[in-house]
Design a protein that fits this description.
CATH topology of one domain in chain A: Cytochrome C Oxidase, Chain A
Shape of chain A: globular
CATH architecture of one domain in chain A: Up-down Bundle
Number of strands of chain A: 0
Strand content of chain A: under 5%
Number of domains of chain B: 1
Distance between the termini of chain A: 9 Å
Oligomer: heterodimer
CATH superfamily of one domain in chain A: Cytochrome c oxidase-like, subunit I domain
Number of helices of chain B: 7
CATH class of one domain in chain A: Mainly Alpha
CATH topology of chain B: Four Helix Bundle (Hemerythrin (Met), subunit A)
Helix content of chain A: over 70%
Radius of gyration of chain B: 18 Å
Largest sheet of chain B: none
Helix content of chain B: over 70%
Radius of gyration of chain A: 22 Å
Number of strands of chain B: 0
CATH architecture of chain B: Up-down Bundle
Largest interface: A-B, 18 and 17 residues
Order of helices and strands of chain B: HHHHHHH
Structural class of chain B: mainly alpha
Order of helices and strands of chain A: HHHHHHHHHHHHHHHHH
Distance between the termini of chain B: 55 Å
CATH class of chain B: Mainly Alpha
């Protein structure tokens, strides 16, 4: 750790990982409700479990991004953070807001109250005071980070990261806008999470990935930056109008069907470019960084994002296809692999890279960490396949043949069982990841003679940072 | 490193090429979709097409190609250190862009007067999407040409001319597909 204030990231990563555990546990419960529908139906109904699963995901990913920014901005700008106090205050606000939201959902407190009650819009259910808290926290964050960058060195990585984070915060403001017209309501509703994941989050993803590649492979900054600009241009070009693929069936004019189909098909390109980028950087690399697990997560991130967001997104993005598949398990398959590949793996990559540095020790826990990668990835890919099969059967029976929804659900139960098994593996992987980051103090496997030799003789191979 | 990559050999601005390729993919996909949907209703498409002003569009093609030629001349002149001539050519090129937009505007107004809109027929959905999206690029191109006439570094002019050639090339593809294809 070069700068003392980078330590702030430690707290963010810790909270993010705790929420990660809650998120996957929520997923496991939801997966069980699919196979045993009355489970917890009185205590914790499915809609609340689902809310916790999705919202915890978003919150922990964002906390991870904030932590990543606090970790890498000082190094990029070559100066301490503007204020560590503000950074901790921001985290406190977010934690209080998250707890408030969870309690309000779970017990339906202050029902109907404009400020304290939940708001009811799917995914934007947070009570208004929590939304306001998120805005205050975001403002503190942007102020803190922007001041640091303005006073320090400006690099392409920090500029793009800032652009992405500013976009994230500004687009969240649409969470406050709730027009009475249902079509308009939905139109703006998509601005929040979907202009994130198909727009500004891709900027965050590309810049964090670029930072990791810079550190892990030692490629020239100039080369990394060129890739970064191309990826960002492709992401914004395709992603903004590509969000039109959410406007097919919500009452917006028919031209969205073609705008959405054409632009969203191009969204595959930036994800392909990120995958190519990651592999080319390793190919051209000139450094044998000891943190192999971080490299595994980075490459896994780029690859799985290409498949989850790119390929599985394209699978149902053309409006002629989406007419049949809309809202089936195909969507769930895409959602799981896209979020996992693009944003979960990204966060776990930066945690894996940064945590040993933040704890000021060598990356000991490589084997367990890599095992957790394969467990989580294997589980998630398996889940994606079974949900895709479930969705294909569902699309045919429900949308083509015209069978009733619940009858079809009975027919695809086998896939839900397999999904639960896959989910269990993901949860075990997630817990193993958290364990490998926090607990072991030495490597579980002894290095063999070749690796031992390198560790003893190659000074570059030992160093955990720079 | 000794290896010179293809990207390093590329003339002009890399990001402009990324933009140009992206635009060509979008217009290309749009035209393929148009022709695909046209196969489902050739008679309806031909009837709808008969409402278009072919002469106006043909004139507009000449306007845009001339404008592109002027932008190319501007770069040549700027590289020969004839700054004034280059600037004049860029302004003339941008003015022809405005002429294109005026003619296009007349065409749209006429359609609106006939009560023809997006929803009238699938032909017009594509007509408005493709030519409208193209017109938006002409508008942006006019701005870019004026911008590089003002900040007239040869690299800037090259990037502006690259963009402008993309815009006229797209029109040259749109014109036969939408207006003439019988």
């Amino acid at each position: 750790m070069k700068y003392e204030s980078q330590k702030v990231a430690y707290a963010y990563f810790a909270v993010a990982m705790a929420l990660f555990a809650i998120q996957v546990t929520g997923g496991l419960i939801a997966g069980w409700i699919y196979v045993s529908p009355n489970f917890l139906s009185e205590l914790l109904p499915f809609n609340i479990v689902r809310m916790l699963h999705t919202n915890a995901l978003i919150v922990w990913l964002i906390l991870g991004f904030f932590g990543a920014a606090y970790f890498l901005i000082p190094e990029e700008s070559e100066r301490e953070l503007h204020s560590t106090k503000l950074a901790y205050l921001q985290l406190l606000i977010l934690v209080v807001g998250t707890l408030g939201a969870v309690l309000t959902y779970t017990f339906n407190l202050f029902e109907g109250n404009w400020l304290l009650g939940k708001e009811g819009r799917e995914f934007l259910e947070q009570p208004k005071w929590v939304k306001a808290g998120i805005v205050v926290a975001a403002l503190i964050f942007l102020y803190n980070i922007s001041m640091t960058v303005l006073k320090g060195k400006k690099t392409a990585i920090s500029n793009i990261l800032l652009l992405g984070l500013w976009g994230l915060a500004l687009l969240f403001l649409f969470a406050f806008y709730n027009p009475g017209n249902l079509s308009l309501d939905k139109q703006y509703w998509w601005y929040v999470v979907h202009l994130w994941v198909e727009g500004v989050w891709e900027l965050i993803m590309a810049s964090i990935l670029a930072y990791l590649m810079l550190k892990l492979t030692g490629v020239d900054r100039e080369v990394v930056e060129k890739w970064l600009y191309v990826i960002v241009a492709a992401a914004l070009f395709s992603g903004i109008l590509g969000t039109g693929h959410h406007y097919y069936w919500i009452g917006t004019p028919a031209y969205w069907q073609w705008i959405g189909s054409i632009f969203s098909s191009l969204e595959v390109i930036p994800f392909f470019a990120m995958m190519a980028f990651a592999f080319v950087m390793v190919w051209k690399g000139r450094r044998d960084h000891p943190n192999k697990a971080a490299l595994l997560w980075s490459l896994g991130c780029a690859t799985l994002a290409f498949f989850g967001a790119g390929v599985w997104g394209f699978l149902h993005t053309l409006h002629g296809v989406n007419y049949y598949t809309h809202g089936t398990q195909i969507t769930a398959a895409h959602g799981h692999l896209a979020f996992y590949g693009a944003y979960v793996c990204l966060n776990l990559a930066i945690f894996t890279y940064a945590m040993p540095i933040l704890k000021n020790r060598d990356p000991y826990n490589q084997v367990l960490n890599m095992a957790s990668f394969w467990l989580m990835t294997g589980g998630m890919v398996f889940m994606t396949f079974v949900l895709t099969f479930a969705g294909t059967v569902q699309t045919h029976m429900q949308r083509v043949v015209g069978d009733y929804f619940m009858d079809v659900q009975d027919q695809v139960a086998i896939f839900y069982w397999m999904r639960f098994g896959a989910g269990l593996v993901v949860v075990i992987g997630a817990l193993l990841f958290i364990y490998s980051i926090w607990v072991p103090r030495k490597e579980v496997l002894e290095p063999g003679p070749v690796e031992r030799e390198r560790l003893d003789n190659d000074p570059d191979h030992v160093a955990t940072e720079s | 490193m000794s290896d010179v990559s293809l990207i390093d050999e590329l003339p002009g601005e890399l990001l402009m090429w990324v933009l140009i390729i992206s635009e060509l993919l979008v217009f290309g996909a749009g035209m393929i979709a148009f022709m695909g949907v046209r196969l489902t209703d050739p008679v309806g498409f031909a009837e709808a097409q008969s409402h278009l002003h072919r002469t106006g569009a043909a004139f507009n093609t000449a306007v845009l190609v001339t404008s592109g030629y002027l932008a190319a001349l501007a770069l040549k002149w700027r590289e020969a250190a004839r700054r004034g001539a280059a600037r004049l050519a860029l302004v003339a090129s941008a003015s022809l862009g405005v002429v294109f937009l005026i003619i296009k505007g007349v065409e749209y107004t006429d359609k609106a007067a006939q009560g023809i809109g997006f929803e009238t027929h699938p032909f017009f959905l594509f007509y408005y999407l493709l030519t409208g999206f193209h017109a938006a690029h002409v508008l942006a191109g006019v701005g870019i040409l004026l911008l590089v006439a003002w900040r007239d570094d040869p690299r800037n002019i090259e990037a502006g001319a690259q963009f402008w050639h993309m815009v006229d090339m797209v029109w040259i593809m749109l014109f036969p597909v939408i207006y003439l294809l019988g």
